[in-house]
Amino acid sequence: MPTNEKDELLRDSEDHFQTLLRIIESVPSRSRNISIETEERDKNFRDVVMHLYEWHAMLERWYREGMDGDRPFMPAPGYQWRTIKLLNLQIWENYQDVTLNHAIKKFKLSHERVMKHIRSHSNEEIMIKKHYKWTKTSNLYSYFVANTANHYLWAIKKCEVIAKVIKAKK
C-alpha cells in the first residue's frame, strides 16, 4: 500500500521523536541536567523539551478552538508571528523551574495527543488547503508538520550539541 503525506508525517514525527529521546538518554542520567555555555536561548535538554511541549500546547489550543468554529489567536495571546522571538523567550522563562524528568513526561504526553489528532483525520483533510476555515489559506499538514517532525529536527540538532558538550566535559 503506497504511503501518503499523513502516513509520512506520522512516521517522520515518531522517528524524530524517538531520535530526540535517544540523544537525551545517551547522556548519563546524572549529567542530563547540565547547562552548556552558549549565547543561544536553550542551554540544556529541559529548555529544548519544554519549548517543544509549549508549542504542542499552542497547537492543541489552535486546533481545539478552530475545530469548534472559532478563530484561534496565533501564535499566542499578546504575540504576533513577527514577535515570535519574544514569545519563545517567555516560554523559556516560564519553565526554568521544571525538572527534566517532568519536562520529558509532559512532552511525551503532548506528543501522543498531537499524534492522535493527526491520526483522526484522513489524508485529504490534512492536505487540502482551506479545508478548515481556521487554517485560512493553508492546510492542517502545515500546522502539524511545523510542530512535530520539523520542530523535532530542530530539537535534535540542539540536543546533539548539548549532548556533545556534556560528554566532552567527562
From TrEMBL:
Matches recorded under InterPro entries: DinB/YfiT-like, DUF1706
Transmembrane segment boundaries: none
A Pfam family of this chain: DUF1706
Stored PANTHER family: HYPOTHETICAL CYTOSOLIC PROTEIN, PTHR40658
Protein name: DinB superfamily protein
Native organism: Amphibacillus marinus
Lineage: Bacteria, Bacillati, Bacillota, Bacilli, Bacillales
